[in-house]
Each structure stands twice: as structure tokens, then as C-alpha cells.
Design a protein that fits this description.
Length: 221
């Protein structure tokens, strides 16, 4: 199936168990890259979701999304009947999104550098929570203003099957399992590739319980 080029210990501390896999030009998977940050990142996740609770957005078509979402950073991704967009304010609280926690920013910048995108300055982190049965249909991330910056995507908790296609919705998709601690970094000619997440299978993970948490860092403005 997928023709991965795996290279062990290309980056990071010499005792890092991380492995780097090329998914497509500009798209790499850093297996286990976030493991050393997990404790601090999950603590920050719990604190920030108290200020900006996870919620189920409604798509412009009127469907309630199965994935629960929230944001931190200056720009937050929101959806309602009027469309998808980024907003400075949380529509639930009417206040700015919580600041990006330091452990989030540090991890995102370390991963971007390891993937060859030095100087990444994310101003948005979309936080996704999947419970068994939740899925994300094929989409492009194209509401950001600047496509030169990559997206850094951190997976925590239950594993999920990531679908990675091409620049057309109908292009063939690769299927890649994303595990606890994996980080995908995604830019260059793959920046606008269609992608999605297959229906989450039931299970329990020691770090998150019965769910998968995904953090995607973007440069929006
Ligand atoms: C997820 N991720 O993994 C959803 N988008 O839960 C995304 O939609 C995504 O992982 C752009 C780049 C990487 C991603
Ligand atoms: Fe996406």
C-alpha cells in the first residue's frame, strides 16, 4: 500500500523514539514526536477547554458535526449556517479565545522545524475531540490567508485512520493510522490536499480515556 520511507532518529534528542515518514511531497509524519510533551500538553488542554468549552459546530449545510471543537490562539476556526471562517471571538462566550498555552506553541514549533519548516508562527490552534463514531469528512484547509505556512497536527489518545488524498476531491486516498504522540506536518505542494478522518473505533486509552484529541496549528493571519 503506502510506500513509506522510514528514517529512524533523523532529528530530536538521540534517545528519541521518533521516526519520520514521508506521506507526500511537503507532508511528513513524525511518529511519537509529541510523547515527551504529552503530560504538559494534556494539562494545558484541560485548562484551556475550561475557558473555551468543546462544542459541536453546525456546517453551512445545517449538519451538526460529530467532532467536538474549540480553539486557542488569536484566531479560532468557527462554523455556522453562514459558513466556515476564522474569528477572534468565541461565539459561545463572546470573548477572545484563550491564549495559546506555552507547551502547545513549543511543540508546534519544534515539530515544524523537524519537518523542515523553520520559523513557524502559528496564530491558531483548532482542538478536535473525537469519540467513537465521530469522523471528519474529506476537506481542504483553505480558510487561512497564507498557504506558505504548514499545518502541524498532533494526535493524542485513541488511534484514528487518517485519509490523505490529492488536490482533487476524487483523487485516490492513502490511509494512515495516527497514534498517540504522532505529529503530522503538512505544507508546500500538499498544503491544499484533501484529507479526512475515518469513523473512530471504540476503545480506551490511558492518556485520554474513550476519545482522540487532535490539535492542528495554523498560521491564519
Ligand atoms: C484530525 N486533522 O486529525 C483532523 N488538517 O483530527 C485535520 O483536518 C488536518 O491533521 C490539515 C492538516 C493536518 C490535519
Ligand atoms: Fe484539516
Amino acid at each position: 500500500m503506502t510506500d513509506f520511507n522510514a528514517t529512524r532518529d533523523l532529528f530530536g534528542a538521540s534517545d528519541s523514539p521518533a521516526t519520520r515518514l514521508d506521506i507526500a511531497p511537503g507532508a511528513v509524519l513524525l511518529r511519537g514526536f509529541a510523547l515527551e510533551d504529552v503530560q504538559a500538553v494534556l494539562e494545558a488542554f484541560h485548562t484551556m477547554t475550561l475557558a473555551a468549552p468543546l462544542r459541536h459546530f453546525v456546517t453551512p449545510g445545517g449538519q451538526t458535526m460529530s467532532v467536538a471543537m474549540t480553539n486557542c490562539g488569536e484566531a479560532g476556526w468557527v462554523s455556522d449556517r453562514r459558513g466556515y471562517r476564522y474569528d477572534r471571538l468565541d461565539p459561545i462566550t463572546g470573548t477572545p479565545w484563550p491564549a495559546m498555552p506555552a507547551p502547545f506553541l513549543a511543540l508546534a514549533q519544534r515539530a515544524a522545524r523537524a519537518a523542515g519548516f523553520d520559523g513557524f508562527k502559528p496564530d491558531a490552534c483548532l482542538v478536535n475531540r473525537y469519540v467513537p463514531g465521530a469522523r471528519l469528512t474529506l476537506h481542504q484547509d483553505k480558510n487561512e490567508r497564507d498557504f506558505r505556512a504548514p499545518i502541524v497536527s498532533v494526535s493524542l489518545g485513541l488511534p484514528a485512520k487518517f485519509l490523505f488524498g490529492g488536490l482533487e476531491r476524487t483523487d485516490k486516498t492513502q490511509r494512515i493510522m495516527l497514534h498517540h504522540g504522532d505529529v503530522a506536518v503538512w505544507g508546500g505542494v500538499s498544503r491544499l490536499a484533501f484529507h479526512g478522518v475515518d469513523t473512530l473505533k471504540d476503545g480506551v486509552h490511558s492518556a485520554t480515556g474513550n476519545c482522540r484529541i487532535n490539535l492542528t496549528f495554523r498560521k491564519v493571519w
